[in-house]
Design brief:
By secondary structure, the chain is α+β, with helices and mostly antiparallel strands. The protein contains four helices and eight strands, in the order H-H-E-E-E-E-E-E-E-H-H-E. A hairpin with a 2-residue loop joins strand 2 and strand 3. The termini are far apart.
Length: 203
């Protein structure tokens, strides 16, 4: 008889212990959930994704400089510094050209630290310089049977004129404009794929 009276109390004790345990587990889960909600995981920036985006445009042409140039060529045979008569050759040339300047993104470096991204671009440079052959016009051409024109005359003259025009374009701020344009373009390339709160520095 005595054993039958004890069993109900023992069952009640186990039931209360189970209720307390369930309550404790529930409260623990509740507080852990609130903690995770308050402290979301910091998003990660994959450097390889950014590098791939830059690699899609290996050479970034940012600025074009169009021009029309007029130049005169003249050459004479000389003897001890004195011009030899009837050996003068000359011409006046006009033509259009285009210089393209920008940066080579294959030389860019990229550093990622947390949510901070820094891109270092190489210095802007002249990438190409083309003359429009259809625009070439020749004026006042004079030659001499004693000193005829040669291919070397035109090649050297063209190289000299290209160098002069490039120096003029650089003096007018072509490379600075190209650098600013490159920075703007890189920002447009990378910002859309950065997570919220990330900072991007380009220089």
């Amino acid at each position: 008889m005595r054993e039958e009276k004890v069993r109900p109390w023992r069952a009640l004790k186990y039931l209360l212990a189970g209720i307390v345990l369930c309550a404790a587990v529930g409260l623990l889960g509740f507080f852990l959930g609130r903690r995770e909600a308050r402290e979301p995981e910091e998003p990660e920036i994959a450097a390889v994704v950014l590098e791939h985006r830059l690699a899609e445009v290996r050479e970034l042409v940012t600025t074009s400089y169009h021009y029309t140039n007029m130049a005169q060529f003249e050459s004479s045979g000389t003897f001890y510094g004195v011009k030899i008569p009837f050996t003068t050759k000359r011409f006046i040339l006009t033509y259009d050209g285009e210089i393209k300047a920008g940066v080579d993104l294959s030389k860019a470096t990229l550093d990622v630290s947390g949510l901070s991204v820094r891109v270092r671009l190489p210095e802007a440079e002249i990438l190409s310089h083309e003359l429009d052959e259809e625009s070439v016009e020749l004026f006042d051409e004079r030659t001499s049977i004693f000193n005829p024109f040669t291919i070397e005359d035109f090649t050297a003259f063209q190289a000299e004129q290209k160098a002069a025009v490039e120096q003029k374009a650089i003096a007018q701020g072509l490379l600075e404009e190209a650098e600013a344009s490159a920075q703007k373009t890189v920002r447009l390339l990378l910002e859309p794929i950065l997570p919220e709160g990330a900072s991007l520095t380009i220089g």
